[in-house]
Amino acid sequence: MKSLIVHARSFAAHVADSERAESFRALQSGQSPEALFITCSDSRVVPSLITGARPGELFELRTAGNIVPEYGGGRPMGETATIEYAVRVLGVRDIVVCGHSHCGAISALVQGDDLSAAPAVRDWLATQAAGSSFGADLADAVQRHAVAQLDRLRTYPCVRERVEEGLLSLHAWYYEVHTGAVRAHRPGGDSSTFGPL
């Protein structure tokens, strides 16, 4: 934690002295991100590092297993509010669901891990990933899961409307944490058809 604190203390001075100072000042007038990037909470997955996005270019939603919760469900959810805000208020043109290699959440589902010591995690995965079918191959399972989240997104009224109007595109990506490689789902193929971006 000490190195993080040291960096945070010096960050403002670094910004002020950098060539990016003006772009940081422009952020005070609001945000206009290009995309909503939904990915896992895993600390090895850093959306701005993967995409090269600068502040203000990505609106992010991070959940265990990059799960998009079912729409509705009888109670407000922060994830649902984030998706709706990105689409209806910020007007993002793209939503990316990015799964990743070595994903602990999907691995737990594939292997049937005992998560009784982490009941919130167990219940989140059990209820939100219900209906997903996984084989034994983790990479394939993660990719199929990312595509399934696109199907779940299409049940959101705000997403469905914008997609039908041609104002929103949905993408499933797979990121390899050990190589940095990113592959994208190829529409028209099955849920395991991923290739280079």
From TrEMBL:
Its EC number is 4.2.1.1. The keyword Membrane does not apply. Coiled coil: none annotated. Its cofactor is Zn(2+). InterPro entries: Carbonic_anhydrase, Carbonic_anhydrase_CS, Carbonic_anhydrase_sf. It catalyses: hydrogencarbonate + H(+) = CO2 + H2O. The keyword Ligase does not apply. SMART domains: Pro_CA (SM00947). Belongs to the beta-class carbonic anhydrase family. Reversible hydration of carbon dioxide. Catalyzes the reversible hydration of carbon dioxide to form bicarbonate. This is Carbonic anhydrase. It comes from Streptomyces hesseae. The lineage of its organism: Bacteria, Bacillati, Actinomycetota, Actinomycetes, Kitasatosporales.
